[in-house]
Design a protein that fits this description.
- The complex is a heterodimer of chains A (638) and B (88).
- By secondary structure, chain A is an alpha/beta fold.
- Chain A is built from 27 helices and ten strands.
- The N terminus of chain A is likely disordered.
- Chain A is globular, with a radius of gyration of 28 Å.
- Chain B is of the alpha+beta class and 88 residues long.
- Chain B has one domain: SH3 type barrels (Roll), CATH 2.30.30.90.
- In chain B, 30% of the residues lie in helices and 31% in strands.
- The radius of gyration of chain B is 14 Å and the shape is globular.
- Chain B starts with a helix and ends with a strand.
- The chains are: A alpha/beta (638), B alpha+beta (88).
Chain lengths: 638, 88
């Protein structure tokens, strides 16, 4: 919260104490409010670009994004993106947060100086309902009517000046996705920072609690301003007839999933190879620069091979996030949730659990936060408990490494699906099956409840914008590289040091006699039945921090072991893992809960250590038993 | 058996139509939401307001949940929820 390096020094210059002393210059805060699917995030991205970060409100689990908007003359304003809501009645956590921020009751966030109320102009009558409670707050408010391009192309009409009269607040007709009409927003923000924006005047508003009355008011206002609702979105109807077709729909769903895996596996190859050779070349180059033998070993074998073996997977992870981004932004995800609802309900879950579970394929942490839209507490806890079973992107490096090393690269189904991609798909299915069976178990025992209602809005299909997809990828790269630069780097250094000690006659020992091997040998008896030796054991210990760390650890261990040789990590693994052990390792990673961030977020969301402790014990136990069975079965057959 | 049969016949006659009985593309005017307060409010926010027209759209493969067009947007509801929305 305290970062204010960007604030201009001259704001309130005459009264402000010298920088670094006392209160920082006052920051101007503007809140973005709007119903779901009104284009709130698109507008936020448009205004702030890369000058944004995700944060949590103190005491609650709802995430919010805060960003800085640069205005002319070096001034700037902070914009906070509030959760999408239809009303300000504080019933769900999202609504409570929005209500509290706007009324100045949120700790650590001063009451906003102004509000940007964003509404979908193609659905104005319904979205205007939110204007009543927002305008009655009495804050300076700009009403932004988004999707102006859509409104026009579908033959809708509206008198902006008249609407401004009716609402007593300025109105801007914009297209956030295309960046049209934004000048008016910047003008408003500019005015707000100087206290020049007028507060919303008291106009005749309906009883806010009464939805039918609010809706009737919205219709009246709409009629007075000559609002002509646009024709129904023709393309959305056409596409739905295809995507929700009883036969074609599920088929397309499957094809989409398979195509994603195929691309992640094969499409990313050239990029991965490029990253790999860049890392190898830079490693060799740095090796030549370093004169000291020990230092060279630390940097090249420890750090470069450790961190490098994880960074290689960045292209694949970005591809996965790109696909999820396209599915979400285009509106297909809501259709997928609809197709999946019946299946989900068989396991005691609902379609609303589907969206967090789908985003858990990227990462369990945001997925667990996304469960807050589920009103039923029992459904929510069940969804939180099963989310880490979904194959998150951190498992990807481990899967790709092991599959690449142990599964032959042959083609199935007439060359359409490679055997390696099929193995990958199988692991995704395995995680999903474990998740739904666990859900079934939970919902029929400790978390039993009546079937809750399911309502899901189907947004019109839209072209995802390059801008918002690019922002997602930049965001993800930052998180990934940050982790590689901190946790994985730290682990790599520790592993390298421990593998060089204790010194024998002033020289580092053979790796088999080092401390790291000693620790590995302690855990070896426990994991031997799974087909793992001490090196894998060390990898498993370090992967408790985050799953992909095991790849870095193995990179470091093998980097030290065969200095000089250009043998890849995949070939090196063959010395230590049998076919059975490799499959067991994959199964172990499919089930085990090796992720500190997830444990921390579950603790915060469920309000204690009870659920995360149970979850950790259950998942690790399941992983152990299933890995043991997998090793036995594969060894028996092979 | 006979009693329940009779009841069924009479209820079929008197009972108001609900959303599940709309054919694809057919529209009806909403009379009331026979649901707990919280669910009813949420549906009203999505556009299911008494007096407004609701049109049945497509459905998920297998026929459930179904999409309804209401007040300029499309909302999917499960059968058991749609059954509680009574038409005029």
């Amino acid at each position: 919260m305290g970062d204010c390096h960007g604030c201009p020094a001259n704001s309130i210059a005459t009264l402000a104490p010298p920088p670094g002393f006392g209160a920082p210059p006052r920051r101007h805060i503007v809140a973005i409010v709007g119903p779901p699917n009104s284009g709130k995030s698109t507008l936020f991205n448009r205004l702030t670009g890369l000058r944004q970060k995700v944060a949590n409100f103190p005491g609650v689990t709802v995430e919010h994004r805060m960003g800085r908007v640069k205005l002319d003359q070096g001034r700037d304003v902070f914009v906070v993106d509030l959760p999408g809501v239809y009303s300000l009645t504080p019933r769900t956590e999202d609504e409570r947060v929005t209500h509290d921020v706007l009324s100045g009751q949120m700790k650590d966030i001063p009451r906003p100086d102004a509000v940007l109320l964003i509404l979908d102009s193609t659905n104005l009558s319904r979205h205007l309902v939110l204007a009543a409670p927002v305008l009655s707050l009495g804050l300076p408010t700009l009403v932004i009517l988004n999707m102006a391009d859509d409104l026009k192309s579908r033959g809708g009409e509206l008198n902006v000046a008249e609407l401004a009269m009716q609402l007593g607040s300025p109105v801007a007709l914009v297209s956030a996705a295309k960046g049209v009409g934004l000048e008016k927003i910047f003008q408003f923000l500019s005015g707000a920072t100087m206290g020049a924006a007028p507060a919303a005047p008291l106009i005749q508003l309906p009883v806010i609690q009464d939805i039918p009355k609010c809706r009737a008011w919205a219709t009246t206002v709409g009629n007075k301003t000559g609002y002509q609702a646009p024709a129904p979105p023709l393309w959305t109807r056409r596409l739905d007839a295809f995507f929700l077709h009883p036969v074609a729909g599920p088929l397309v769903f499957l094809l989409v999933v398979i195509a994603v895996f195929q691309t992640i596996f094969n499409g990313a190859r050239p990029l991965m190879d490029a990253v790999q050779s860049a890392i190898e070349m830079s490693g060799r180059w740095i090796g030549h620069l370093l004169p000291n033998e020990a230092l060279r070993s630390l940097v090249v074998d420890g750090i470069w091979k450790g961190v490098g073996s994880v960074v290689i997977f960045l292209p694949q992870i970005l591809l996965l996030f790109l696909f999820i981004g396209i599915l979400e932004d285009s509106g297909y995800l809501a259709r997928a949730a609809l197709i999946a609802d019946r299946t989900m309900s068989r396991f005691g879950l609902q379609g609303k659990s589907f969206i967090p579970l789908l985003s858990a394929y990227a990462c369990a942490v945001p997925a667990i936060m996304a469960t807050r839209t589920i009103e039923s507490k029992r459904d929510r806890i069940a969804t939180i408990l099963i989310a880490p079973f979904m194959t998150c992107s951190a498992r990807l490096p481990v899967y790709i490494l092991i599959i690449g090393a142990f599964i032959p690269d042959r083609h199935l189904i007439g060359g359409f699906l490679g055997m390696q991609a099929a193995a990958m798909l199988g692991l995704y299915v395995l995680g999903f099956v474990a998740a739904v069976l666990t859900a079934r178990l939970l919902k029929s025992t400790v978390l039993k409840s009546r079937r809750s209602s399911f309502m899901l809005e189907m947004p019109p299909y839209r072209w995802p914008t390059v801008r918002s997809l690019a922002l997602r990828l930049v965001d993800r790269s930052k998180v990934f590289l940050w982790r590689a630069g901190t946790v994985i780097l730290g682990v790599a250094i520790v592993i390298w040091v421990l593998s060089k000690l204790p010194l024998q006659d002033g020289k580092p020992p053979a790796i088999e006699h080092s401390i790291v091997a000693g620790i590995g040998h302690v855990v070896e008896p426990v994991i031997k039945p799974l087909g793992f030796n001490w090196k894998i054991g060390i990898g498993l210990i370090t992967s408790l921090a985050a799953r992909e760390v095991i790849v870095g650890t193995l990179g470091t261990i093998y980097g030290i072991q065969d200095t000089g040789s250009q043998q890849g990590l995949q070939q090196a693994l063959h010395q230590d893992l049998t076919q059975g052990g490799a499959v067991a390792l994959l199964v172990f990673f499919a089930f085990a809960m090796q992720c500190m961030s997830t444990i921390a977020v579950v603790r915060r969301e469920t309000g204690g250590w009870f659920w995360p402790a149970i979850q950790f014990a259950y998942m690790t136990g399941l992983a152990y038993v299933c890995a043991f069975l997998a090793n036995r079965i594969v060894t028996f057959w092979a | 058996m006979q009693v329940s049969f009779k009841e069924k016949v009479s209820s079929k006659k008197d009972r108001a139509k609900n959303l599940t009985e709309l054919k694809p593309g057919e529209a009806g005017v909403l009379e009331k939401l026979d649901l707990p307060d919280d669910d009813a409010r949420r549906l009203m926010e999505l556009g299911f307001i008494p007096g407004h027209s609701v049109t049945r759209g497509l459905s998920a493969p297998g026929g459930d949940p179904r999409v309804f067009r209401v007040d300029g947007s499309e909302v999917a509801l499960r059968r058991e929820t749609a059954r509680r929305l009574i038409l005029k």
